[in-house]
Amino acid sequence: ASSTLPIGERLRVGVAVASTVVALVIAVATGLATRHMSRRAKTWVEMSTLVRIILPEVVIAVGLFLLMRALDIPLGFVAIVIGHVVFLSAYATVIIESRFAALTNVLEEAAADLGASPWRAFWRVTLPGLVPAIVVAGLLSFTFSFDDVVTSMFLGGAKVETLPVLILGLVRIEVSPTVNAVAVAVMVINLLALAAVAFSSSI
Questions:
Q1: Is-contact 44 138, C-beta < 8 A?
Q2: Which of 12, 54, 144, 153 fits 163 for a cystine, CB–CB 3.0-4.6 Å?
Q3: CB 155 within 8 A of CB 68
Q4: What per-residue confidence (pLDDT) applies to 9?
Q5: What is the pTM of this model?
Q6: Distances in Å between the alpha carbon of 122 and those of 20, 97, 118, 119, 133?
């Protein structure tokens, strides 16, 4: 069993990185879209975001599992990433939208007056202002995805086993020194990520 730990670790990091990147893209796109939405449309977006945060993870995981089985979508790496993105994008959206609320349109309007296209104004003006929120949202999303067990168990299928799921299975048999070492390594990674979040939010 210990020989499979490196494979599970690499897979876990890959799932966390992919989930974080997709969640951040969705969160930034949502933040940009809500700036130009009507009040009613913005309310619906906010409600969908809050629902994904409030609902227990097991409810979301079971719902996605049943949906993927009904649509004949294979379980595995992609399914886990989709499951993680569903709730990670909600947390990232809340963080990034709070940053959008603190920004004004003055700099964007000034860039437009100077001849910048909307895309160029976003890259040169809006995105730099969002960097602190993106860093915090990214670190939190990575930590949540890295630690996740419930969604990974439901959507991983029989062939894909992430690191926390593997540790859970090994602990049921025997708490070996290898399991202890990996658990400590995971804990250290999470603490470093949370410390980075605290440091980034204080800047």
A1: no
A2: 12
A3: yes
A4: 46
A5: 0.79
A6: 21, 15, 6, 5, 15
The pLDDT tens digits of the residues spanning 135-160 come to 889 988 988 888 888 998 899 877 77
pLDDT of 203: 58
- Return the DSSP state at 123: I
Q: What Cα–Cα distance (Å) separates residue 113 from each residue in 108, 119, 121, 123?
A: 9, 14, 10, 16
| Cα dist from 141 to 5, 115, 176, 202, whole Å | 23, 36, 30, 18
Tokens describing residue 2: 């210990």
List Cβ neighbours of 67 (8 Å cut-off, separation of 6 or more): 73
- CA–CA dist 105, 111 (Å, integer): 10
Identify the three-state secondary structure at position 73: coil
> H helices within 35-105, ranges in order?
39-54, 57-70, 77-102
- Token couple for 73: 């979508």
CA angle centred on 69, ends 67 and 75, rounded to 5°: 105
* Residue 25 confidence class, pLDDT cut points 50, 70, 90: very high
The terminus-to-terminus CA distance of the chain in angstroms comes to: 43
